[in-house]
Batch of 2 targets.
Target 1
Amino acid sequence: QMQLVESGGGLVQAGDSLRLSCAVVGHRNSDYAMGWFRQAPGKEREFVGGIGWSAGTQKYADDMKGRCAISRDNTNNTGTLQMNSLKPEDTADYYCAVDPIHRPDTVGVEAAWRYVYWGQGTLVTVSS
């Protein structure tokens, strides 16, 4: 059974950077797509960014473009979300999610329904 273990959340100031990590445990290879989502108090869950089976396939939410980068380490089966120039409105619980099913390219990494496994979430708080 695959499990996702997230780390790296915390309290930072506006303008700071933060790196979140997602360790994929219990999966013998790196054949999966990984997405990052967030949910602020009282708001819907929203897509942050994602990376497909091929690291060349990446997509980011409009308000995160230029401020974040997703990478994956296939050797260690981990993914990272690097966020820069953080704003108070970035405050949320951040979740990584993994889809081990090789879907058609028409299914984008931003589609939350595709993800089978989800992490427990890590809180990011950005103070002004």
Note: The longest strand covers residues 18-25.
Target 2
Amino acid sequence: QVQLVESGGGLVQAGDSLRLSCAASGRTLRSYTMGWFRQAPGKEREFVAAISWNGGSTVYADSVKGRFTISRDSAKNRVSLQMNSLKPEETAVYYCAARYSGSSRPETTGGIYAYWGQGTQVTVSS
């Protein structure tokens, strides 16, 4: 079992930055693809970013490319999401997810991730 806990959410203004963190316990994340997803009120959950088990490959939603950066620290069993130039429409609950996978291609489909955190609220005011 992998337990994930997100932190770093908050209320910011449009154009500001936030850094989300996802701390894992129970297992080392070395063999896990890690992803970030978000869900706004009344909307479906959507993919944001993912990173392969060894950090060698990342993938981003088109809407966040160039502004968001996903990274992992294997020594600290932690994954982060640096979010710059935030927009009001990115207000959502952000979730960290883990999937046991040795693939070099990070998966973008939420349904195949087995472990999820409780989420952290990000609110971007205009």
Note: The chain has a mean pLDDT of 95.
